[in-house]
Design goal:
44% of the residues lie in helices and 15% in strands.
């Protein structure tokens, strides 16, 4: 009788473990929320569409990303020379990921690395093969917009010049000062898909990325991008930088 009771308890524990593992697996699955509606009808041909309703995505960490109704999108921001490799801007397998990515690239609510990573996850949720998703991820890491939050710098007793503070204009090439949705100050660099540096990075790295095929992981892509952008301000620094500027506005 004791042996039977022990077996029942053991089987029950196995059942609970199986349920827990299933729930963990389910929570790790990234997926879209809602229906992607692009308006007006046929807007893809003009290269400019608006979202007819809210459209969202839940990433592998369980974080929600929502593109609001009315968002204007030009599709996946792929330069014309690269389209034979990765597809057209409004290709169905890419457009859902592009819409989510566009929304957060414009608003700087999340960190730029996190925002570009969700583009990769959304591509995979759209059934884009790992190899092709990896190449597109590399493209947005290298050529996509980047931003850093500006926080009040700390004085270090050496006058106005301090390692904890920087002159945004001279330190970040092509930087633009913007305000994020919380009223914070952000130094941002616009996309560089048409730059010589982007073209060189793609030409140099694409063959090796293609050779990896579906064994290519996002972590490997990030390493490729970091090597290609060695010395770049945004790759060399974190997501917050101290500055002498102190600006905050009320956002309602």
């Amino acid at each position: 009788m004791l042996a039977v009771g022990h077996s029942i308890r053991f089987a029950f524990r196995l059942l609970l473990l199986s349920i827990s593992l299933a729930l963990m697996t389910l929570s790790a699955m990234a997926d879209f929320v809602g229906v992607l509606e692009l308006i007006p009808a046929g807007c893809e041909k003009t290269g400019r569409c608006r979202l007819g309703q809210n459209f969202g995505f839940i990433d592998q960490s369980g974080t929600g990303w929502q593109a609001r109704k009315g968002l204007v999108t030009d599709g996946a921001s792929i330069p014309s020379w690269a389209r034979p490799l990765v597809g057209q801007p409004f290709e169905k397998s890419f457009i859902k990921a592009a819409v989510i990515h566009d929304h957060y690239c414009d608003r700087h609510v999340r960190k730029w690395r996190q925002t570009h990573r969700v583009f990769y996850e959304a591509l995979r949720a759209s059934n884009v093969p790992k190899g092709k998703a990896g190449i597109m991820y590399f493209a947005v890491l290298v050529g996509g917009p980047k931003w850093v939050k500006l926080i009040k710098g700390k004085k270090c007793g050496l006058g106005d010049t301090c390692v904890f503070q920087l002159d945004v204009a001279s330190t970040i090439p092509n930087a633009q000062l913007t305000i994020d949705e919380t009223g914070g100050l952000v130094a941002a660099r616009p996309p560089e898909f048409d730059s010589a540096r982007f073209a060189a990075a793609m030409a140099t790295n694409t063959p090796e990325l293609e050779a990896a095929g579906d064994s290519l992981t996002p972590e490997q892509v990030e390493k490729f991008a970091a090597d290609a952008m060695a010395g770049d301000f945004f790759f060399e620094n974190g997501d917050e930088i101290g500055t002498t500027l102190d600006v905050k506005v009320e956002v309602r």
